[in-house]
């Protein structure tokens, strides 16, 4: 049974996939109190809950944090990553609602609708006070041209506005396709009549509009922030509103929420909403449904494509590489168990069809498999890289053309001062994963279950003696694979048995004169 804690107010209809799942128990903040933090597998939040190191330390079993929305600035993603916790979001469920809200804010701002509304409700009729500005023919500056920014551009076109965009990641072809002018930030600031920001809040975008570059703004410009508080510096904004350089501002988001800068909020030319961009029935259902489905998929052991801290790979490709992903874990674990001295370099080399796909996640699964039994914490593809770095293990990957006749081949080499191990493996559709090479020996076995790895001399009778010992200990040998370089030379054997191999059995095997080593292995 998985335990899911919903920490913020999230659409109940959208939670249906989790509420209806037989292997999931959902606890909602304020409604269900019979839960304990240490059992929680998944945490669902909107923007109210701060998922920081302190909260994470109270959730030792946590596997996934889901943000029912886009911005993850309320989640300490790097702390979650270090703990191996996957962070997912719902990237497009609230795009339309936020774009529509932004456009409502723009229209309200240039026509003073909120101020006029208060005026009429106060039994006044001051028509002269609220003369507005047309949108027709004006230039809308959009800073951050992703999902929301581009939806806003479409709406601006319907109002026959010109659109000037700043987004360092915007390609020429996309700008052309959407018929917008792609300019530098300073150019947008100095040419637009209305500027709206739609970037995430990052260390690069905090204070993106600040006291320095606000001097470039046209006199009488309108500014809009429905993305994140702080992208437009609030002190600089207030200063420019006070001088009249900025004619008005529409704010849905604030540096601190609820906002504490009363002078800004109370300013006659500021209109404000309490972070309502995504607050529609539709958006709330969409984001809740999307994350609920993804959390369920993830808890049930399958990969999701909306992860913030794992490479985003399209589902079809993910399904194709999944067997290699599992094989990577097995190879990592095999190398870790076989090498009994420190390893400081791991290289994964891919050949054959697999090189057409994204392999970085497979390499991370190798590293996770390798580290799993060596560190005292959860290791998975999310935190494998940072744990490897902390432990001084460098890792890399290569692609090569020669696949030794296999349609796909994966080779992993683990090197240290006293160790140099190489394993090659393949995955055959309908047959499964096979290890086909170990340290110079060609072999062919399925990497799973209870195994015994033997290094011996290729002499008559060794296998017979070994078989007798297994028989005496009533341990059934399921498969046995032998590899040798030369007749009568060094050889290896890999046996799979039906139950864990006991110590006295192993000790007896080690007494066979032609066996130089025997190691029990446990693979997933
Ligand atoms: N008010 C509200 O309720 C909501 C607010 N948001 C906010 O809106 C933001 C944008 O959402 P989406 O459009 O869905 O995200 P997105 O990821 O599709 O677009 C963000 C764009 O910003 C651009 N960007 C990144 N750094 C930049 C920089 N330094 N300068 C200029 N552009 C930069 C990126 O290239 C990208 O195109 C979210 O990160 C979130 O914080 C999102 C939904 C609701
Ligand atoms: O949960 C909300 O209503 C806020 C939405 C938001 O800001 C986001 O998705 O980034």
Automatic annotation (TrEMBL):
Tell me where the transmembrane regions lie: none
A GO term for molecular function: phosphoglycerate dehydrogenase activity
Q: Name one Pfam family in it.
A: PGDH_inter
The biological pathway it contributes to is: Amino-acid biosynthesis; L-serine biosynthesis; L-serine from 3-phospho-D-glycerate: step 1/3
Q: Does the keyword Transmembrane apply?
A: no
Q: What is its EC number?
A: 1.1.1.95
Question: Where would one find coiled-coil regions in this protein?
Answer: none
Q: Which PROSITE patterns match?
A: ACT, D_2_HYDROXYACID_DH_2, D_2_HYDROXYACID_DH_3
Keyword rRNA-binding: yes or no? no
Q: Which reaction does it catalyse?
A: (2R)-3-phosphoglycerate + NAD(+) = 3-phosphooxypyruvate + NADH + H(+); (R)-2-hydroxyglutarate + NAD(+) = 2-oxoglutarate + NADH + H(+)
Question: SUPFAM superfamilies, alphabetically?
Answer: ACT-like, Formate/glycerate dehydrogenase catalytic domain-like, NAD(P)-binding Rossmann-fold domains, Serine metabolism enzymes domain
Domain ACT residues, every copy: 451-524
Instruction: Report keywords, A-Z.
Output: Amino-acid biosynthesis, NAD, Oxidoreductase, Serine biosynthesis
Q: Which enzyme class, named as a word?
A: oxidoreductase
Please give the function described in this protein's UniProt entry: Catalyzes the reversible oxidation of 3-phospho-D-glycerate to 3-phosphonooxypyruvate, the first step of the phosphorylated L-serine biosynthesis pathway. Also catalyzes the reversible oxidation of 2-hydroxyglutarate to 2-oxoglutarate.
Q: According to its UniProt record, which protein family does this protein belong to?
A: Belongs to the D-isomer specific 2-hydroxyacid dehydrogenase family.
User: What is the protein's given name?
Assistant: D-3-phosphoglycerate dehydrogenase
């Amino acid at each position: 049974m998985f335990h899911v804690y919903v920490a913020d107010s999230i659409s109940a209809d959208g939670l249906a996939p989790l509420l209806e799942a037989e292997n999931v128990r959902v606890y909602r903040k304020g409604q269900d109190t019979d839960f304990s933090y240490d059992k929680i597998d998944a945490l669902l939040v909107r923007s109210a809950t701060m998922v920081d190191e302190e909260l994470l330390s109270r959730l030792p079993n946590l596997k996934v944090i889901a943000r029912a929305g886009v911005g993850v600035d309320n989640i300490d993603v790097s702390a979650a990553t270090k703990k191996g916790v996957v962070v997912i979001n719902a990237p497009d469920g609230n795009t339309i609602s936020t774009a529509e809200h932004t456009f409502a804010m723009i229209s309200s701002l240039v026509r003073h609708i909120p101020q006029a509304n208060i005026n009429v409700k106060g039994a006044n009729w001051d028509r002269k006070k609220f003369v507005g500005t047309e949108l027709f023919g004006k230039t809308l500056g959009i800073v951050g041209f992703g999902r929301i920014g581009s939806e806003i551009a479409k709406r601006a076109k319907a109002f026959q506005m010109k659109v000037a965009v700043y987004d360092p990641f915007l390609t020429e072809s996309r700008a052309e396709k959407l018929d917008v002018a792609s300019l530098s930030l300073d150019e947008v600031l100095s040419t637009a009549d209305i500027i709206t920001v739609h970037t995430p809040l990052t260390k690069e975008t905090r204070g993106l509009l600040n006291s320095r570059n606000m001097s470039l703004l046209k006199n009488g410009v309108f500014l809009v922030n429905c993305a994140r508080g702080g992208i437009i510096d609030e002190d600089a904004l207030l200063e420019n509103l006070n001088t009249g350089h900025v004619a008005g501002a529409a704010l849905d988001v604030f540096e601190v929420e609820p906002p504490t800068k009363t002078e800004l909020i109370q300013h006659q030319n500021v209109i404000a909403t309490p972070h309502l961009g995504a607050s529609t029935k539709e958006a709330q259902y969409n984001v809740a449904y999307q994350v609920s489905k993804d959390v369920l998929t993830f808890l049930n052991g399958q990969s999701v494509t909306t992860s913030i801290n794992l490479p985003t790979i399209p589902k079809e490709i993910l399904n194709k590489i999944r067997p290699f992903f599992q094989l990577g874990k097995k190879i990592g674990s095999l190398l870790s168990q076989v090498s009994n001295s420190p390893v400081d370099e791991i290289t994964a080399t891919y050949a054959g069809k697999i090189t057409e796909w994204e392999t970085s996640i497979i390499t991370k699964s190798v590293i996770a498999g390798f580290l799993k039994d060596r560190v005292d914490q959860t290791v998975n593809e999310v935190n494998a890289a940072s744990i490897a770095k902390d432990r001084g293990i460098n890792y890399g990957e290569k692609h090569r053309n020669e696949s030794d006749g296999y349609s796909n081949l994966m080779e992993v080499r683990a090197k240290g001062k006293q160790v140099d191990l190489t394993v090659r493996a393949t995955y055959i559709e309908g047959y499964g994963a096979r290890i086909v090479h170990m340290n110079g020996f060609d072999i062919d076995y399925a990497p799973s279950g209870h195994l015994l790895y033997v290094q011996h001399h290729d002499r008559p009778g060794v296998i017979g003696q070994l078989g007798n010992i297994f028989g005496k200990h009533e341990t059934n040998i399921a498969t046995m694979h032998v590899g040798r370089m030369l007749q009568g030379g060094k050889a290896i054997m890999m046996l799979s048995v039906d139950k864990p191999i006991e110590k006295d059995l192993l000790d007896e095997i080690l007494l066979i004169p032609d066996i130089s080593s025997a190691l029990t292995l446990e693979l997933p």
